[in-house]
User: Fold this.
Amino acid sequence: ALNWAISQGAAEMSARFIYSMAWWWGINKYAGEGYQFAERVLAFSDAISSALRGMMLRRIGRLVFLHGRYEHARGLLEESVALLRESDEQVELARALNQLSKLANNPDYAQESLEIFTGLDNKRGLAWVLNTLGEQARLAEDHEAALGYYEQSLTLYEAFKYHIMLASVYANLG
Assistant:
């Protein structure tokens, strides 16, 4: 279906496919294949709304990161953030900021993400960004702050029994 959409020049449809499939490509170790499709869609990205382009670039940034191309991933995430700042897609903006924070090792992006998720009362997003802040504090050897962030993240993840992320936070605590 994606090949057909690309061949028809259906830019928005192709971008939605990329956005939807990128997560699957990432977890199933098809990041390279996903990125090849994404490059084809980016070729006609001027026909894609800026909000959808920003959303798609966030997902592509993750694929490129998984493929080991960190500087390229950072550029995609920076462009994603810029586009999403102009849109109403606040959850996507917060997600992009958190991913950029991890890649750039810049807690300012994570703090902004935390503010957005807090304002939206998005508990899953809060748990995710608190884990990121914990990891960044740990890497900065601020173990007290790291522990506080990890504990807050655990409390939220336990509330909605998100086991895979609970395991991640416990591993970070270890």
Notes: The radius of gyration is 17 Å. The chain has a mean pLDDT of 91. Residues 11-27 form the longest helix (17 residues).
